[in-house]
Amino acid sequence: MSKINKIAVFTSGGDAPGMNACIRAVVRTGIHFGCEMVGIKQGYQGMIDENFIPMNRHSVSNIMQLGGTILKTARCLEFRTEEGMEKAYQNLKKQGIQALVAIGGDGTFTGAERFSNKYDIPVVCVPGTIDNDLYGSDFTLGFDTATNTVIEAIDKIRDTAESHDRLFFIEVMGRDAGCIALRAGIAGGAEAIMLPEKDTAIEDLISTLEHGAANLKSSSIVIVAEGDKNGGAYNVAKRVKEKFDYYDTKVTILGHLQRGGSPSSFDRILGSRMGFAAVKALLAGQTRKMVGLHGNNIALTDLREALSGHEFKLEDDLMEMSSILA
Amino acid sequence: MSKINKIAVFTSGGDAPGMNACIRAVVRTGIHFGCEMVGIKQGYQGMIDENFIPMNRHSVSNIMQLGGTILKTARCLEFRTEEGMEKAYQNLKKQGIQALVAIGGDGTFTGAERFSNKYDIPVVCVPGTIDNDLYGSDFTLGFDTATNTVIEAIDKIRDTAESHDRLFFIEVMGRDAGCIALRAGIAGGAEAIMLPEKDTAIEDLISTLEHGAANLKSSSIVIVAEGDKNGGAYNVAKRVKEKFDYYDTKVTILGHLQRGGSPSSFDRILGSRMGFAAVKALLAGQTRKMVGLHGNNIALTDLREALSGHEFKLEDDLMEMSSILA
Amino acid sequence: MSKINKIAVFTSGGDAPGMNACIRAVVRTGIHFGCEMVGIKQGYQGMIDENFIPMNRHSVSNIMQLGGTILKTARCLEFRTEEGMEKAYQNLKKQGIQALVAIGGDGTFTGAERFSNKYDIPVVCVPGTIDNDLYGSDFTLGFDTATNTVIEAIDKIRDTAESHDRLFFIEVMGRDAGCIALRAGIAGGAEAIMLPEKDTAIEDLISTLEHGAANLKSSSIVIVAEGDKNGGAYNVAKRVKEKFDYYDTKVTILGHLQRGGSPSSFDRILGSRMGFAAVKALLAGQTRKMVGLHGNNIALTDLREALSGHEFKLEDDLMEMSSILA
Amino acid sequence: MSKINKIAVFTSGGDAPGMNACIRAVVRTGIHFGCEMVGIKQGYQGMIDENFIPMNRHSVSNIMQLGGTILKTARCLEFRTEEGMEKAYQNLKKQGIQALVAIGGDGTFTGAERFSNKYDIPVVCVPGTIDNDLYGSDFTLGFDTATNTVIEAIDKIRDTAESHDRLFFIEVMGRDAGCIALRAGIAGGAEAIMLPEKDTAIEDLISTLEHGAANLKSSSIVIVAEGDKNGGAYNVAKRVKEKFDYYDTKVTILGHLQRGGSPSSFDRILGSRMGFAAVKALLAGQTRKMVGLHGNNIALTDLREALSGHEFKLEDDLMEMSSILA
């Protein structure tokens, strides 16, 4: 394979705090190693629409502390078609782009894997999603910031819950993965946590809350992942209320609040390391890899393996602790 | 009137950040001037239930930075009856309590005014409510913190809105008063603000948004007070979406998040000044007054006047600015 | 006077949070009323160096939440000379700039007053300084945010002070004015506050601290304004330590941390209102005025009056409270 | 070994955010497994002074979000003597305390190792220190929060640095270990980082800054660990200033600000996991171990090994990135 001289970077799927730190690292690392760097706006859509912008060191100045992604992101149905892919490829070729860094979640990776296979263009992926639901990295980019955002919200709601002897149901992101719910629930001292990975019978939840009330807890907070099988916080609250009215009951849906905000130190470092490693991997001849955090090191995983359905598992001790410490 | 030697303080209605600063000031000022101080838990309910606690300087140590109220708060239907009031009065008498500081909103004040009139017990009220909807004070306790909480949320949501070219509808507190919506909307740079005080036709909102889209705004944020006449953020979003689908549309309801959090400097100072002034007013023989902020001074208003329906008005320049600056 | 069609805005002196909100309001209000708008970079220096940039609505998009000033600021000795002023004037004339909005402190105002007098160019000033030391406005732009920054620091230091039974001396900004020290001291629950406006004998401070220790306070925090006559926090700490070693003693100098940060809601609103009012005042034919907050209204003061040495006074009740509540 | 029925927990050395989460986990886990739990105030000093308090589930309610340590901490010279240790042991025996959880840094561990060896009392240690300088755990408790605190400060200082074209030297904690400096420097986008682990010649620093100035950087931030061999931020600033005066130069010493603050989600989870694991280890018959984070799992290390001088190493990729990304 000939030397890579021109690399493009893009973000795709849901935005996540830390993406800008990663873009900055990709651009500056590439330039450091002599490459020309390009940003693609709005992910795969931008490849098709020729939304390319040249990036130099200044293009990524003073962006590390910003939430979201300066390259924007979008979902793109057209890229799933043969024609869309072909158009994207011709546009990249026209630009002289020889390799890609893709930042996003599993949808992004699936597209990258197919595209790279078909057109033999090297691609390295960075797991950027607040959901922390990818195999091959202890943590995904944005998860730490999102969890901090959730516990700040829980801390605030605890103030008012305590003042009124209230029961709060707080719905957090996580359609398939309960990582945010589990960690934020423990870190926020929630009385109960409802996860997509685990069936919680409403009766069991009520008995937990009754136990707390009997122990004179003056307020209770229940964290509900949006993918919980009882149908979200409103439904859980309604069903609990029918049988247990010791407390005044309220519901809060945190929603997109969880995506934004200035990234935490952890996510800025993680994004920087991953972007740095992604470019180094491309220059070392790697392709179809995902960079990931393993312990305190960055390592590569085959994209196919990352995507092949290894189930992401919640940590056993966290699961055990969640009821013992509550 | 004989000298006051024993004063009780309580919080009632919705909790608000800064209430603890006020309780601390009431207790320490009272002690400084030689009074015995009592806290009543859960407002009027606590009077009826004899939920009294003696307060010394240490009782209020290290509470200024806490959201909520250490004395808790509750709504109390029983106090609206003659029997409830009588019971409360007998309990206060038994305790030797000679005067009251009541911290809360207009429901709290109405109760205080009736009670003080009937039993000739001096009472001074402190306007503690995040809604800023009381006559006789430029700002109510908790409003500044709540507004800061809302703009932090808007800033975060702006990150993700910008990354995705999205239109967000954010619902904020304010059933009758649009103060939070108006100020947070301006401070958060919202493209439009929907207030209870003002009819906004959906057509006008859409034309504002179309105008922004034509000017290449890559995202838009609309703040909706819960008391807006179109029926809240979900309804507004639904009706807008039917006719205007330039952006991907999302709704966030901030809810009780807005009540909590460590009070801002402004609210800590305001709570301290109001608590200090309330005790001094009682000791100077005042009764049935509300302390309020007028410019940069604390002044007293008759409770009756504060309650008599002077309509609270949104500032003219803010109303004018809200569309010009957006 | 002929109609004003082109207005320039600049920031000068120390930067303050909220300046960007003000710049945004000036630009958008001017455009709304049909003016051409110009930004001058680095204050008076930029006038001399012809550092002018045209401003449209987009130039001020998404800046409200940023600390500092996008127009930058600098001190400029040359502008104090006749030649410097003449050069600045000729440059403004060349640009067709007919009026100025100057955002800064009293140094900025002095320059603006002289310049406007000499060349008959209308100017309206906005008080932007974290020190809150200007006559003619209840609050200056940036003061609220700076005070919040200081109390967040005090809250953090309190954590560690409490854990170690320590005595902390925290130095805050305020060479001539103790506003930040007084308000942050009260809001942070400081045990003592040292102000430039008031001589505090070290012996009195020690006796206050001894009193606290005797009452089993497990930590103490003393706020020292940098202009305190005992010579700053290090000197105060040293002299206290010689005679009072009940606690382990530590010093923190907050320094420029106090200038930065995303502006509070209060400062965003204040900056917006002041910028809006400044442009309206210019268009109404006003000149050599300062806009200021009076109670909850914006009003104009003659620049000469604002500068004429009316001493800024700390609020009496705050002074009295500062020892009673500690 | 007979079954353990009564466990004591204490914090020692410098306080760190997350210690309260750990205390809470220790107490609740112990109670869950049928033990009686005791808190020792002020570490080893409290053992000698019989400063014991019984702990139940309520003793640790609502403490997870608090910085510092509710059990307080102190340095204790007396415990280093034979007599001090003997006294401590007799006091523990009198209380029926059969095992210890010690939360602190290497001073704490050294004491624990000697004590446990001498009196055959089981002890498990938790690495609680913001410096992240212990062998046997990827991260120590408090490090994540401290790093977040530092980058928030850098972000604020960047605002004012940018507005004034300034060069800032920010001194952060780290007498022997540059972990905070390295991570916060990268996450804050610092132009240069001075570490205890690495000699940086002032000439090299100046040439880095000159390079930045030549590339039109409008401000620069240099992070200096307190243990840097050039003698701290003031000295570095002074020496740079002598030869390079392109920018206006300022110094900020963050100091004890870095110790406080509500713990991050990461530290709350880490503290909870470590406390949980420490109690389980004791109940499983372990002693003289340190719990640590290895990747995403909690594992035990021999105290002797943790203390035996394995040098803690800064991550290679972070070292390499620190200059490439700046």
UniProtKB/TrEMBL annotation, chains A, B, C, D:
| Pathway(s) served | Carbohydrate degradation; glycolysis; D-glyceraldehyde 3-phosphate and glycerone phosphate from D-glucose: step 3/4
| Keyword Transferase assigned | yes
Entry EC number(s): 2.7.1.11
List locations, semicolon-separated: Cytoplasm
Cofactor or coenzyme needed: Mg(2+)
For this protein, the activity regulation entry reads: Allosterically activated by ADP and other diphosphonucleosides, and allosterically inhibited by phosphoenolpyruvate.
Where is it predominantly found?
cytoplasm
The positions annotated for binding ATP are 14, 75-76, 105-108
Q: PROSITE patterns of this UniProt entry? A: PHOSPHOFRUCTOKINASE
The Phosphofructokinase domain covers which part of the protein? 6-282
Q: Which UniProt keywords apply?
A: Allosteric enzyme, ATP-binding, Cytoplasm, Glycolysis, Kinase, Magnesium, Metal-binding, Nucleotide-binding, Transferase
Record family assignment: Belongs to the phosphofructokinase type A (PFKA) family. ATP-dependent PFK group I subfamily. Prokaryotic clade 'B1' sub-subfamily.
The role this protein plays is:
Catalyzes the phosphorylation of D-fructose 6-phosphate to fructose 1,6-bisphosphate by ATP, the first committing step of glycolysis.
Q: How does the annotation summarize its subunit structure?
A: Homotetramer.
This chain's protein is named ATP-dependent 6-phosphofructokinase
